[in-house]
Amino acid sequence: MKCRKIHFSGHAAIQMFKRIIEVDHVEHVLKTGKIIREYPEDKPYPSFLILGFIEKRPLHVVVSTDKQGNCYIITAYEPDRKLWESDFETKK
Known about the structure:
Blueprint: E1 6-8, H1 10-19, H2 23-32, E2 34-39, E3 47-54, E4 57-65, E5 71-77
Parallel strand pairs: 1-5
Antiparallel strand pairs: 2-3, 3-4, 4-5
């Protein structure tokens, strides 16, 4: 996903710190990851769930985008293997 500018919500920043997810990790997922869910009705902007990998560590990034191409990071997390199939794209 191409972003003009990336903004992090307070929630995202706190959760990233707790989960040891760096800004560079999120940027990498946005550039190289795969959109696995789309939420076009989300407000104020449509959002997406993106799967990417940092080395072998899977990461999910939830991001919304405005019409100008700015990205707003809502949260980032390592998917729970108890809740996701081994492809990390399909919920159990």
